Amino acid sequence: MTLFWIFLILVILIVVGNAMTLLRSAKPPKIPEGVKPQPYGADDEG
After folding, report:
1. 34 by DSSP, 3-state: which?
2. What is the pLDDT of residues 1-46, one digit of tens each?
3. How many whole angstroms separate alpha carbon 29 and alpha carbon 7?
4. What span, in angstroms and rounded, lies between the C-alpha atoms of 4 and 10?
5. Which of 15, 10, 16, 41 is nearest to 2 (CA)?
6. Strand ranges, E, within 1-46
7. What is the 3-state secondary structure (H, E, C) of the chain?
8. In sequence order, what are the residues at sequence separation of 6 or more whose Cβ sits closer than 8 angstroms to the Cβ of residue 38?
9. Using alpha carbons only, what angle is made at residue 10 by residues 3 and 18, rounded to the nearest 5 degrees?
10. What is the pLDDT of residue 43?
């Protein structure tokens, strides 16, 4: 019975840790004020 609770807590910790990682990586990056997008040519130029 004790092994069941240890396994359950371990699974919950892994799920919560993965959810926190996904939430952290889902935030859009903060771009500094002076940065402007660079123009680019057509994709088929080579």
Report:
1. coil
2. 899 999 999 999 999 999 999 988 887 878 889 888 888 776 665 5
3. 36
4. 10
5. 10
6. none
7. CHHHHHHHHHHHHHHHHHHHHHHHHHCCCCCCCCCCCCCCCCCCCC
8. none
9. 165
10. 65
